[in-house]
Specification:
The chain has 2 domains: 2-63, 2-Layer Sandwich (Alpha-Beta Plaits), CATH 3.30.70.1140; 83-333, Alpha-Beta Barrel (TIM Barrel), CATH 3.20.20.70. Helices cover 36% and strands 18% of the residues. It has 11 helices and 14 strands. It has helices spanning 11-23, 50-54, 107-120, 144-157, 171-177, 191-199, 214-226, 253-261, 270-274, 277-289, 316-333; strands at residues 2-5, 27-32, 37-42, 59-63, 83-85, 88-90, 96-100, 124-126, 161-164, 180-183, 204-207, 232-236, 266-268, 294-298. The chain has an 8-stranded parallel beta barrel, surrounded by 7 helices. A 4-stranded antiparallel beta sheet has the order 2-3-1-4. It is elongated. The structure holds phosphoenolpyruvate and manganese (II) ion.
Length: 336
């Protein structure tokens, strides 16, 4: 349930509404914008009638949110959420590019990729230290040693860094080394992991599960937000369909749909969506054309030797081309 206060409502008016919500054992979520204050009622809202709030002369509107993702919904929050990743805003109308290797493999490899993506204008640096591999015999990532190298590469280039968290047990060490915590597609419905990052204060990059509906994606975001962490960035990374030519099928509809359903920023990962290097640049351009908030792409100085996802990783010169072309498309559609 959402209560919208009238313009000019004083703090005491807001507190009176909050007290009424608390009296019935519910939580109140107050967000004050420049023009209006919106109060969300958290918990069992069936205890309340809308009229209880509407008879307050300082209440403008009261309505129920019928979707299961309440805090994440556009009806709860009208304005786009801008998530700060270090000093980089995501969701403010700019096109954010996250780039770097699939996995951190060594100091030389990590630094080479970091310097290359920085040179071409990436905004955030990626690198996997805990890797969710389909086979237990594949390279599993460097773990904490990898996180240290990623942090060092971030400091060297001045870029904020993102890495995946796979287990609640690793939360503290991952949070200590990164600016943005990634929850991978395979863990999108790992509810204890979602609650764990929800209790923390690091922004979260939540990837869509490979067969998750958009409602399931947003309810997963809700798990994080309901614990207190409102800094969630969504990421479409392709879904499983009957098509086998690509690794996954990139569902570009998501961007328009998510913008209707939610106020959270949405990125596209064309690397995992296609699994094919030659498709990454065209799909990144398409992402800019449909006004996604940015992309996350895999870049490796020597993809042929990559321990993970080399076939979809861009060479630095490809990444330079990607940056130039997404810039052109972003500028072209900006005011449309
Ligand atoms: C990744 O970004 O490295 C990754 C493993 O992606 P996903 O969870 O989307 O498969
Ligand atoms: Mn990968």
């Amino acid at each position: 349930m959402v209560i919208v206060m009238k313009k000019g409502a004083k703090d005491s008016d807001i507190q009176a509404v909050v007290a009424h919500i608390h009296k019935n054992g519910n939580e109140a979520d107050v967000s004050s914008g420049p023009n209006r204050t919106v109060i969300g009622v958290i918990g069992d809202t069936l205890k309340f009638e809308l009229s209880e709030f509407l008879m307050d002369p300082m209440v403008d509107k009261a309505y129920r949110i019928t979707v299961p993702y309440k805090l994440a919904s556009r009806s709860y929050k009208r304005d786009d959420t801008v998530v700060m990743v270090g000093n980089v805003p995501v969701g403010n109308g700019s096109f954010t590019v996250i780039a770097g290797p699939c996995a951190i493999e060594s100091r030389d490899q990590m630094m080479a990729a970091a310097i290359a993506v920085k040179k071409s204008g990436a905004n955030i640096l990626r690198g996997g230290a805990f890797k969710p591999r389909t086979s237990p015999y594949s390279f599993q990532g460097m773990g904490v040693e990898g996180l240290k190298l990623l942090k060092e590469a971030g400091e060297l280039t001045g870029l904020p860094v993102v890495s995946e968290l796979m287990s609640t047990a690793d939360y503290d060490v991952v949070a200590e080394h990164v600016d943005l915590i990634q929850i991978g597609a395979r863990n999108m419905q790992n509810f204890s992991l979602l609650k764990c990052v929800g209790r923390g204060d690091k922004p979260v990059l939540l990837k869509r599960g490979m067969s998750a509906t958009l409602e399931e994606l947003l309810v997963a975001a809700e798990y994080i937000m309901a614990e207190g962490n409102r800094n969630v960035i969504l990421c479409e990374r392709g879904i499983r369909t009957f098509e086998k030519y690509m690794r996954n099928t990139l569902d570009l509809n998501v961007v328009t749909a998510i913008k209707e359903m939610s106020h959270l920023p949405i990125l596209i990962d064309p690397s995992h969506a296609s699994g094919r290097r030659n498709m990454v640049i065209p799909m990144a351009r398409a992402s800019a054309a449909i006004k996604a908030d940015g992309v996350m792409v895999e870049v490796h100085a020597n993809p042929d030797e990559a321990l993970c996802d080399g076939g979809q990783s861009l060479y630095p010169e490809h990444f330079e081309e990607l940056m130039q072309s997404v810039r052109v498309v972003h500028e072209a559609v900006r005011d449309l």
